[in-house]
Amino acid sequence: MDEYFKELGQPNFRAGQVFRWLHQGVESFDEMTNLPRALRERLKGSCALDVPSVERKQVSKLDGTIKYLWRLGDGNCVETVLMRYKHGNTVCVSSQVGCNMGCVFCASTLGGKVRDLNPAEILDQVIFTEKDSGETISNIVMMGIGEPLDNFDHVLRFLALVNHPDGMNIGMRHISLSTCGLVNKIDKLAQLGLQLTLSVSLHAPDDETRSRLMPVNQAVGVELLMDTCRRYFETTGRRISYEYAMVEGVNDSDAQADQLARILRGQPGHVNLIPLNEVAESPLRPSRRVRQFQQRLESHGITVTVRRRLGGDIDASCGQLRRRRIMEGEAHIPEEGLT
Ligand code: SAH
């Protein structure tokens, strides 16, 4: 933007002014009231200002969680969730329209990936959630629709923007990025040494179970994934958080807890157990052994937390609201997005 305004023959501070306006969530150049009128007209003629609009919004009566379904410039929709915790408000953002990873328990992947989000479309989820809710956001989790490491360059650009002191100024230590385990990209991320928290969706300690739940495992395997995670810790010094969605009769036995403890040996990881959210299209059911599984892991000296369920009365988990809209037949999905 500095270069762009220099080319227009504008003073140095213009780029900063526009950058700050964009982070206020303005919807037109006319709202940028400290720019000369002639410049606003010029920008209108040469730049596009695309903002998301609220397609649907659900507010939980139980805990104030808000779920947004945003309509993007091309008519596609993605979800963002605002969660209220004691340590501050957290938004869960999407990184792609749909997802290609095919995890069998996940609603986001049911129609495949339509397209990647661009950096601004990821950032806008934070800006416009703040603007619509009137709440200040202090933490970000990249755990919405999509696989962030499958959209690596745009996600990194988003991280740089959301971290920018003249923008949202959200510190890397307040950001978590969740991946199904794309090992080459985890290595690439490690090289950047960012202070964010990496969450790895593990969901099973053995190849047979993990491949059944997550097709991505067929190409990678648990052993290579865990080697990569250990390397990530050694390179960055940041401990990894392992997500484990508890599925009845699939990954919730004591033997699997013992095996999980075994593969985590040698690194200071942390396990986050997630009670499975039921998805209408899937036969998988939530486990009733979450506490036993937790205790079994703890008996091996593993640090375990159980993810608190927020927004239980709304469609607050991964991809459910977008999915519902698609099933109701209102969605605009380009043909190439249908698999
Ligand atoms: N693609 C990334 C981030 C998106 S999902 C990843 O795979 O990590 C964020 C987390 O929610 C992941 O751990 C994912 O496996 C989990 N998840 C998806 N569907 C779920 C469901 N129905 N119940 C519980 N957890 C689910």
Helix content: 25-40%
β-strand amount: 15-25%
Largest sheet: 10 strands, mixed
As residue ranges, the low-confidence spans are 330-339
Please report the total strand number as a whole number: 12
Supply Rg.
21 Å
Order of helices and strands: HHHEEEEEEHEHEHEHHHEHEHEH
Bound molecules: S-adenosyl-L-homocysteine
Q: For the largest beta sheet, what order do the strands appear in spatially?
A: 1-2-3-4-7-8-9-10-11-12
Q: Count helical runs.
A: 12
How would the global form be characterised?
globular
**Mean pLDDT figure:** 92
Distance between the first and last residues' Cα: 38 Å
| Sheet/helix structural class | alpha/beta
What does this structure look like?
By secondary structure, the chain is α/β, with parallel strands linked by helices. About 35% of the residues lie in helices and about 20% in strands. The chain contains twelve helices and twelve strands. The chain has helices at about 1-5, 15-25, 35-45, 120-135, 150-160, 185-190, 205-215, 215-220, 220-235, 255-265, 290-300, 320-325, and strands at about 55-60, 65-70, 75-85, 90, 95-100, 115, 140, 175-180, 195-200, 240-245, 270-275, 305. The strands form two sheets. Strands 1-2-3-4-7-8-9-10-11-12 form a ten-stranded mixed sheet, covered by helices on one side. It has a two-stranded antiparallel ribbon with strand order 5-6. Helix 10 crosses helix 11 (about 290-300). The protein is globular, with a radius of gyration of 21 Å. Mean pLDDT is about 90; it is low at about 330-339. It binds S-adenosyl-L-homocysteine (SAH). S-adenosyl-L-homocysteine binds next to strand 8 and strand 10. S-adenosyl-L-homocysteine (SAH) binds near residues 274, 276, 279 and 318.
